[in-house]
Design brief:
Blueprint: E1 5-11, H1 25-42, H2 46-51, E2 55-62, E3 71-82, E4 85-94, E5 100-109, H3 114-121, E6 145-151, H4 165-182, H5 187-193, E7 195-206, E8 215-225, E9 229-237, E10 244-256, E11 261-262, H6 267-274
Antiparallel strand pairs: 1-3, 2-5, 2-7, 3-4, 4-5, 6-8, 7-10, 8-9, 9-10, 10-11
């Protein structure tokens, strides 16, 4: 395990917890962005990372929730190199128990020099986390509904001046709220029934970039509807050109906030959710 290096250490502030009463996924993304940059510097790719302009894929698996006050740290390592790019890994660890609570498997579609390949190749780590399942995105997009729009604000920018990873995920989280309303799960419903949506898997692909004051549009559909689970699919575009900036597949469950267990969808919610299914 010596190839893994610590790239972040911190805690969960109460104000960064969501309606499911645990650490918000966008703030995981915020910390992972710091870890990613620290790892890039450590393996000699800091300049390449800051220049951006390449496609990134991040598959996250949430094994256990972190709640307010939890101390945690992140360790990161390069995992592999191939002709198309570089694979990286990050593990979010509960500092009290030593348990890995979140696994992030990342891939950069970028070219590397022979010197970079040689240097990184000597410090590859072994991935002991889950293997991301490649789930197909819907072919049709006309069934997607608008769930978020706005403009990139100063607080949304990363160190390179682009729309940050956490900024994007915050917008996808807002899109979730509007998708929930379309399913009949507005705030009153969730408070009355003590329900929330708990994410256990995310697959994010970033293929474009936005800068300060650029507009964005998010459209959402449901790709899978189970007894207590569903997979939301979000597409963020630049509405001026239609260019796809990012796609997110988000798998989660209808969470009973008191039992902290998945709960079956009600018949009313299931019927409305079925109208959002896209293939």
């Amino acid at each position: 395990m010596t190839q893994w290096i610590e790239t972040y250490r911190g805690a969960v502030p109460p104000w960064q917890c969501d309606t499911t009463e645990h650490f918000t996924v966008a703030y995981y993304a915020d910390r992972l962005e710091e870890a990613e940059t620290s790892l890039a510097d450590a393996i000699g790719l800091g300049d390449r990372h800051r220049a951006g302009g390449f496609v990134r894929r991040i598959d996250l698996r949430y094994a256990r929730e972190l709640r307010a006050g939890a101390a945690f740290h992140i360790v990161s390592a390069p995992l592999g190199i191939d002709d198309a790019g570089l694979r990286l890994g990050h593990r979010v660890i509960d500092s009290g128990s030593g348990e890995t609570v979140t696994w992030a498997d990342e891939y950069w579609e970028t070219s590397l020099s022979p010197e970079q390949r040689a240097g990184i190749g000597g410090r590859l780590a072994t991935w002991e986390g889950p293997i991301a399942e490649q789930r197909a995105d819907p072919v049709a997009t006309d069934g997607l509904v608008q769930t978020a729009c706005g403009r990139v604000r100063t607080a949304d920018l990363d160190a390179t001046g682009h729309f940050s990873l956490s900024g994007m995920v915050h917008r996808f989280s807002s899109a979730n709220a509007h998708a929930a309303v379309a399913m009949g799960m507005d705030t009153a419903y969730m408070q009355r029934n003590r329900r929330g949506f708990s994410t256990f898997e995310m697959a994010l692909k970033i293929s474009g970039a936005l800068r300060l004051d650029d507009p964005y549009l998010v459209e959402t559909g449901i790709a899978h509807l189970g007894n207590s689970s569903l997979r939301l699919v979000h597409r963020m575009t630049d509405p001026r050109t239609g260019a796809v900036i990012a796609r997110l597949g988000q798998f989660g469950v209808n969470l009973d906030l008191d039992a902290r267990r998945p709960a079956r969808w009600s018949d009313e919610v299931r019927e409305k959710a079925a109208a959002l299914l896209v293939v």
